[in-house]
């Protein structure tokens, strides 16, 4: 049998880098290069899968954006992205430029505008794994029984987890392998990995995700979101154009049925779509910090403008009542899932823009203000733990820590979502609803739970949606705060 070393290497015809000062033409070039590279791999795979013998390996390369500046330019510091801090060569690989067209155009435009230097577009030296090139393609020819008689690793590049990581995000990689500085937070391989995971976990294609993400931990919110979406589709002035359910079921008719799936995905996700991704996506992440981390790890590559947690929590103060709201302004992290990526000593600040939007939304939906508003909404520390049955352990330790932290609520997701928002530079916030008070003997009985959910979920979801609408109308430079940027940041948001 021939080994990898004995096989010749076939690649597409080499092309040169081109310089662009027009962001639209630069993005069009990225799309052309990516389409050509993936077509080469798909055609080679189809031939190999049909039984054609070959003595070669096939390889295509991701396109890249490269940028060189020799000056310390004075940039408007109010904008936290769109510029580099010092002279040098900057580069990033790119995948799915069709999916990221608007984002890429925006980021390239800012870079050219701020530094008055063109960008260079051409092939990189990073191979495209066949699995990622095949994602979402309708021109892949698989055997009828799904069995392959060939080993993909013998003929094609496959995903390499050694190079698919968060080193740039975590500040652990300051330079690319060729000595250039990172231009974006995620490499093409890292993006492709998450796009594949998103489709798996949510049962919806990545292109349906909107720029404003709501996370919840109960199915009740999904039912209300669908009802809200249908009402918006009935209103021609709403600006919303379609509703997407798991299985990529798309409806534009407010009365159209949504066929149920035989098996729901792990994190059912629903999208109320608007032009250029300005709509709202709701993700039911279920219960637990592991799910919260998984969802945000992958959604982060889509570079959303904000994500909010709207779920239920345990109220920790006797003065709270079931149904009260909790607006988190600090987080006690005992979720343990992000400790290796973001040490617990790193503070997770409240973001003023998000806090104001949430508070204004609560006031608008409840029609309360001043002291009346304070009676139903409390601001304070939210504790997130990884033990759902923490009440069954000796309470002296946990209760003392909760008291010392001044925590007012406890759940299993919020701090994880906020911490990953901080890590990925995605604006974040939390508005929870008190569903029980375990420290004070107020637990939900079955009848109480049903009544509580019916009366509270609709209002809570409306508040989350309204907050997102307020954030949607906010200028980009205001919502993407400098508080989320480190000393030396990538130019791309």
Structure description:
- It is a single chain.
- With 493 residues, this protein is α/β, with parallel strands linked by helices.
- The chain has two domains: 4-198, AMP nucleoside phosphorylase, N-terminal domain (amp nucleosidase, domain 1); 203-483, 3-Layer(aba) Sandwich (Rossmann fold), CATH 3.40.50.
- Helices cover 34% and strands 20% of the residues.
- It contains 13 helices and 18 strands.
- The chain has a five-stranded mixed β-sheet.
- Strand 16 (377-385), helix 10 and strand 17 form a beta-alpha-beta unit.
- Helix 1 packs across helix 2 (101-115) and helix 6 crosses helix 12.
- The longest helix is centred in the first third of the chain and has 27 residues, at 23-49.
CATH topology of the largest domain: Rossmann fold
The CATH homologous superfamily of the largest domain is termed Nucleoside phosphorylase domain
What integer value in Å does the Rg equal?
A: 24 Å
CATH class of the largest domain: Alpha Beta
Number of helices: 13
* Percent of sequence in beta strands: 15-25%
Mean pLDDT: 89
Unreliable segments of 5+ consecutive residues: none
- Which overall shape is indicated by the principal axes computed on the Cα atoms? globular
Number of domains: 2
Helix fraction bin: 25-40%
Between the first and last Cα atoms, what is the distance in angstroms? Answer: 48 Å
Question: Can you describe this structure in just a few lines?
Answer:
The protein has 493 residues and is α/β, with parallel strands linked by helices.
